[in-house]
Amino acid sequence: MDKESQNFVYGINPVLELLKAERRKARKLLLSRENRSKAVDRILTFAGEKGIQIEWKEKKELDKISLFSNHQGIICLTTPFTFKKLADSIDEKTDRATSADFYIILDSINDPMNFGSIIRSCVIAGVDGIVIPKHGSCPVTATVAKASAGAVEYASIIMETNLVNAISLMKEKGLWVFGLDEKGRLPYTEIDFSVPLALVFGSEGKGIRNLVKKNCDETVSIPSRAGMTSLNVSSAVSVVAFEVARQRGVRLGKGSNSKA
After folding, report:
1. Where would I find the RNA 2-O ribose methyltransferase substrate binding domain in this sequence (predicted)?
2. Which of 11, 89, 161, 186 has the least CB density, counted as fewest CB within 10 Å?
3. At which of 28, 53, 78 does a domain end?
């Protein structure tokens, strides 16, 4: 198995959330003999209830499988993540009377740590879906799952072949599309985020690709102090996503899981 494998997750929180969410099939648990704890015992209880096969391994064996030493003594072999289609996600939304559409579009985000952190923020902030391109984007790997602390198991991630077409569909459905850019015309604090919307974020260094940016309704920025560089993409997503939640009066309960 390599570090980009989509067929296993590692770490206590990612494995626990995978078992709790029940959206993916857990095929087998691999556990280190040297790492018995209350958290591991809880996972073992879940596994026993679900009839999941368990194998005890030496830590060095788990190191070889995950290629990382931060697996916390547990790896779960599982099925790959299932992606949604944008049209289905929009059509299936049933709570528009109380919650307007809210999507995050990621244009060529390739760092798994950033992607995982973004997923976690989106789930907590109440994002309906995270849209990524089929090509040129980080896949949902074990590293992404670990970086999300298991939040990926509750996320709705949408894979589309063409982001421009995805934006076009969103506009047809009545969504406003805002591109986050360090040279954006308006600061994000001046935008009315109560409307149905999608926020577009580009990769660090290159930002949003020109054609994608041209198809946004508006470009907005996060103001920064003179001489300071812009936030990294995961921080930028958090800042604006929680501003959307604040404007909409979303109550973010401790430990709550959203639909992103």
Report:
1. 8-84
2. 161
3. 78
